[in-house]
Amino acid sequence: LTPKGTAAGVQFDTPIDVATREVVEVTGVRAERGGIVAVTYTWRWKPTSMAEVVGYKPPAPKEATARLRKSDAGWVVEDAGLR
């Protein structure tokens, strides 16, 4: 590892989180069969402080469609729509 990486707390053979997913905007909601709701949304990678250290530049926001089902405990994500 470089001195800069070591100083940032990077450890050899340990995954580095450089970004987390962040919902930007919900763009549509529609009911489907079987009590499922399809939610179309835009998401992006939100860089962590480690992103700058390793030179990570996130791509442009992306669109996805999640499918949710209502349960006794609330809404459950059946499929987040992320590929």
What's the short version?
With 83 residues, the chain is mainly beta.
Number of helices: 2
The side-by-side strand order for the widest beta sheet comes to: 1-2-3-4
Beta strands, count: 4
Radius of gyration: 18 Å
Average residue-wise pLDDT: 89
Principal-axis shape: elongated
Q: Helix fraction?
A: 10-25%
Class from helix and strand fractions = mainly beta
> Termini, distance in Å?
31 Å
Q: In this structure, how is the largest beta sheet organized?
A: 4 strands, antiparallel
Uncertain ranges:
none
Estimate what percentage of residues fall within beta strands: over 45%
Please give a structural write-up.
The structure is a single chain. With 83 residues, the chain is mainly β. Strand 3 and strand 4 form a beta hairpin. It has 2 helices and 4 strands; from the N terminus they run H-E-E-H-E-E.
How are the elements arranged and paired?
Elements: H1 3-7, E1 19-31, E2 36-47, H2 49-54, E3 62-71, E4 74-79
Antiparallel strand pairs: 1-2, 2-3, 3-4
Task: Supply database-style keywords.
single chain; 83 residues; mainly beta; 4-stranded antiparallel beta sheet; 2 helices; 4 strands; 13% helix; elongated
